[in-house]
Each structure stands twice: as C-alpha cells, then as structure tokens.
Amino acid sequence: MSRASASLVALVAVAGAALTGCSSLEKPPPPPIQVRVTVESDPGHPLPGATILRENRELGVTSADGTVVVPLRGAEGDTVDLAVRCPATEYQSPQKPISVLLRRTSEQKVAEYRALCPPLFRNVVVAVRAENGPNLPVMYLGQMYARTDASGAAHFMVRVRPYEQFDVTLSTAEKGNEGLRPQNPAKAFVVKAQDEVMFFDQRFQVEKKPVVRGPSGPVRIP
To answer: What residues of the chain score a pLDDT lower than 70?
Structure first.
C-alpha cells in the first residue's frame, strides 16, 4: 500500500470514529406522554371494548373499568385528536374527537380524558294498572307482550331508541269483554335518553247487560 493510500484509510477511520462519537452524544428521544381515557355508556357506567384511535391507528381498547392508558408522541404543546370507536351494534360513538394537549409534568401525572358512548337502545318497563280490567292482553307492535292478572296489573320490558314514540294497547277484543268501556284503549309513550319505568293507568267502566223480562200482566192459560 502506498503512503497516499495509507493516509486516506487513516482519514476515513478518523472520520468514522468522529461520527460515532457524535452519535453517541445525541440525546435519546423523550418517552411518549401517557394519557388515560375513560369511556362510559352513561355517567357512572364504564364501557369496556371501546377503541381509541389516532389518525385511524389503534392505540388501545378500554378494559372492564372503561379505562385505557395510551402513549402519545409529539412536540411539547402540540394538540392531538383521539377518536373513540364504541361497539357499533349497541352504542353510539362520539362525533367529535378528544383534543389532547401534549404536556409533560414534573410529577409525571397521567392526564385524564373522558368520552361518552350512549346506548342506541333504552330499556323501558311498562307497568299496567287496569281497574276493572282483569285478564286483558297487553299489545305492543301488534303482539301480546303481557296479560293483566286478576287485579288488572301487568308489566313488560321493551327496547326502544331514545326519543322514539311507541304505543301500548289494552285489548278488549276477547269474548266476555264487550261490556268494558272504553274499548281497546291505547297510550303513547316517548322514550327519554335513559332507562326508565312508564305507567299505563286505565279505569274501565263495566256496562251492565240489560235484563230481559217476560211479558207483564196476567198470562192466558190455554
């Protein structure tokens, strides 16, 4: 090897060592910022199985207590949008994302954020109290869902979308109920954004059958 070639090799080695030394002096990237997201179906009711996403990339899924801790990378002071995707068959996902401000604290506290995924359907118990109305079919959507007992009481549960209206009818169509007034009374209900009990109170008047009397006066005996 010539003297010039040897000098070139030495320069390359020195340059490589210098680059290696510089890279070893570079600071490692900061750890991601941890945030905790709590998802509920109703206030106080944790929702497991909700997925947290950032730019359509899944970061985590809520556990049985409705919470999940997700790591976020970015510059200090950046704002990150997190989407919440709830189980689609039962719950409604939030339309707006959660805006998270990336900020590190000396106490290493985990920032907490909340989201609400209201149920798509509400459980409504209909309690019927029918005075003078024993053994009457209670109709919903054209089908009998219950029947009043001897005291005129009955109840059943339906699942209805919030703010929808539904009707319940006390059927008097069966034989023996011709004298009940009113005939086939119905009541409309409007569901709120919560599970609840609704009451159908109905008082029936019972018309007495006319008494058929025989001919008055003396009866001629043939």
So the answer is: 1-25, 106, 108, 210-222
